[in-house]
Amino acid sequence: MKLWVLRHGEAEQRANTDAERRLTAHGREQVLRSAARLIGQPLQAIVASPYVRAQQTAALVHGALGFAEPVRTVPWLTPDSDVRQAIAELDQLGLEHVLLVSHQPLVGGLVCMLEQGHLQAPAPMSTASLAELEGDWPLAGLMTLRSLDHPG
């Protein structure tokens, strides 16, 4: 299995709610730089948080890749979602090549848990950071972190 974990691009500081924060122009540029790293990858699904900035990020990647399948929106990828639940949900998808679009602190914890089997040292995921993990199953401690790119 190959799993890519993408944190949304830079977002507005303020909105009516955290879920409504939108990407900035710089955030959109960051996302497109990260999306370029996914060109040619055999993605089967783009799965995203319902928050506006994650939806915008997923839509930009979807368009940049000319991805045929619609973005899948799930409630288990919000900032404060439980890492273990997210891993269980990911396993239930039954797919081999998946891009997750979400937020900190979930993305840092998810990468750490999948690679190291614990949450003691979350991965440093800045805006639009893209982690690539590979392994037989999406289980705690059983995946290898192949790359972690920060678009700046």
From TrEMBL:
Name of a matching Pfam family: His_Phos_1
InterPro entries hit by this protein: His_Pase_superF_clade-1, His_PPase_superfam, PGM_Phosphatase, SixA
GO MF term set: protein histidine phosphatase activity
Gene Ontology CC entries for this record: cytoplasm
Cross-referenced SMART domains: PGAM
Transmembrane segments: none
Enzyme kind, highest EC tier: hydrolase
EC numbers on record: 3.1.3.-
Keywords, in A-Z order: Hydrolase
Keyword Hydrolase applies: yes
Coiled-coil ranges (or none): none
NCBIfam families from the UniProt entry: sixA
PANTHER family reported in the protein's UniProt record: BROAD-SPECIFICITY PHOSPHATASE YOR283W-RELATED
Protein name, per record: Phosphohistidine phosphatase SixA
Annotated source species: Pseudomonas reidholzensis
Gene name per UniProt: sixA
